[in-house]
Amino acid sequence: MLPELAGWLDSRYGTKHQKAVCAILEEVRSELEHCFALLDEWGTERKEEKEKRLVWQLVGLFGFPTPSSAHFSMYCVKGIEQGKAVVDWIGHNRTVTWDVPERAQPHLLPGMYIIATAGCHDEMGDPVLVYPPAFSPYLEPWLQKLKEWLDRVKKEVPVSQERVRASVDRLSRRP
To answer: Which string of b and e fits 133-149 if b means at least 16 CB within 10 Å?
Structure first.
């Protein structure tokens, strides 16, 4: 599909993307096949639960309230040990283990980034998106900026809360 899109862009706008797109796809073909296989093999379990969570996530994107259990987290695969994935939980600064269906284990590659559903008690659900290890150079700078932003927000929230508290106190003392 991507080569066809690049070909269409080339013919429509006079660009020369198709050759580069095809070369990149060929270079990462094996990793991409593992990504798709991982989603297929893992996703066949609890399909109905996965679909419900995706619907709730979509509802949340439109600003409607959702159950607290409907959210996603990002993980980076470190390896697999005794049938469990060892992953870094991005944004939580901790390493956790994750039960992996046996048929999905051969497709789990170190360096993969996985976006998966996560429950309200930090349990991990099924993967929704899987990025190959080759995606890392593009994702790492974005994750670093995200971490810096989160650190800044963590510092600013208490200050903002104190300002609101002080304003409420002033307003409540007015006659």
So the answer is: bebeeeeeeeeeeeeee
**CATH of residue 115:** 2.40.50.100
Q: What is the pLDDT of residue 160?
A: 81
| Count of positions (residues) in the chain | 175
Q: What is the structure's pLDDT at 118? A: 74
Count how many Cα atoms sit within 13 Å of the Cα of residue 163 in the half-sphere of its side chain.
Answer: 5
Listing DSSP states for 107-144 in one string gives G--TT-EEEEEE-TTS-EEEEEEEE-GGGHHHHHHHHH
Number of domains forming the structure of the chain: 1
Q: Do the beta carbons of residue 79 and residue 138 sit within 8 Å?
A: no
Query: Is 39 a member of any domain?
Result: yes
Q: Is position 170 within any domain? A: no
Q: What is the pLDDT of residues 15-30, one digit of tens each?
A: 999 999 999 999 999 9
Low-confidence ranges of the chain (pLDDT < 70): 43-54, 56-70, 119-123, 175
| Residue ranges making up the domain that contains 88 | 30-135
CA–CA separation, 154 vs 172, rounded Å? Answer: 28
Task: Give me 132's structure tokens.
Answer: 């190959």
